[in-house]
Amino acid sequence: MTGGRKLLGHVALLLPPFGWLTVFYLGSLFILLLSAFWQVDSMSGEMIHEWTLDNFRVLVTDETYRIIAERTIGIAALVTVTDIILAWPLAYVIARKVGPRMKLFLLVLVALPLWSSMLARIYAWRLILGHDGVLNWFLRSAGLPEQSFAFTNVALWIVFTYLWLPFMLMPLISAIERIPASLLDAAGDMGATPFQTFRTVIFPLAIPGMAAGSVFTFAVTLGEYVTPMLVGGAGSEFIGNVVYSNVGVSGNIPFAAAFSMILLVVIGAYMLVARRFGAFDGA
Questions:
Q1: 248 to each of 111, 223, 256, how far by Cα in Å?
Q2: Whole-number Å distance between alpha carbons of 84 and 165
Q3: How far apart are CA 279 and CA 135, in angstroms?
């Protein structure tokens, strides 16, 4: 009797969040998938609830949308790799080379940009990379040629790398901290150089942390549309921008849903790969 009451208590406790997840999250994904097979009447603008593959056919045959998808996935992958490279030195120093007070201070510095508005940080980079921005002022003062990164894919890469770097740093720091010091001592006792210790001990054991951080950086970059609007140029559209314009401007929700399915498929495949590398292993 007591066991039955305990089970009912657990069910009552879990039912509201799981019900919310099922109805509002999984339900919305199901409706998204369903609407991708509908279409909009070109004359009346009304949605036609008839099964068709026309939206997916346009995505496959139209080179413009293929280029946008390749650009989105390519920049997301590049940002992820760049964040991994930039995060390693700082993560290693925070996890292994400083005392508790300095570690806390550096962690606060890492998290500090997250306390400000994302839009404020994006506009700050527009001021830095603009033609008359801080970077060109510094280059002119140093007698160096000016740059023209503003409103290009290079600017997108720089801003995205900056925005999501903390999300790569945090799991990587945690992964490095979990490596037992005894393993590093054993490698040193066996005559391994610092680089050999890093290559054969530290790096392999930190792969789950890199995989977890990459899920954040890759997935968030993949679904972005605000940053390309503010920092990118005419050839910097992401999948999110096409979805936004089709929902908010042209009202072609089925086509937007079909293009969104590419994001879901790519993110789902990436998460499966990241899972094989331990991204979702318990801390």
A1: 34, 16, 10
A2: 8
A3: 37
Residue 210: how many other CB atoms lie within 10 Å: 24
Which amino acid is it at 234?
A: A
User: What are the tens digits of pLDDT across the range 95-142?
Assistant: 988 988 999 999 999 888 888 889 999 999 988 988 888 888 888 888
Q: Look up residue 74 and give its amino acid.
A: G
Instruction: State the Cα–Cα distance between residues 233 and 50, nearest whole angstrom.
Output: 37
Q: Domain boundaries in the chain?
A: 64-276
Tokens found for residue 211: 């995989």
Give the contacts of 218 (CB within 8 A, at least 6 positions apart): 76, 77, 79, 80, 267, 270
Residues 6+ apart with CB under 8 A from 213: 83, 84, 87, 167, 168, 169, 170, 171, 172
State the Cα–Cα distance between residues 235 and 226, nearest whole angstrom: 15
The Cα-based distances of 213 to 174, 193, 240, 266, 274 in angstroms read: 11, 28, 22, 17, 10
Specify the CATH number of the domain 64-276: 1.10.3720.10
How many Cα atoms within 13 Å fall on the side-chain side of residue 226? 10
CB 242 within 8 A of CB 256: yes
Could you give the CA distance from residue 16 to residue 2 in angstroms, rounded to a whole number? 23
Each residue's pLDDT tens digit, 60-107: 899 999 999 999 999 999 999 999 999 999 999 999 889 889 999 999
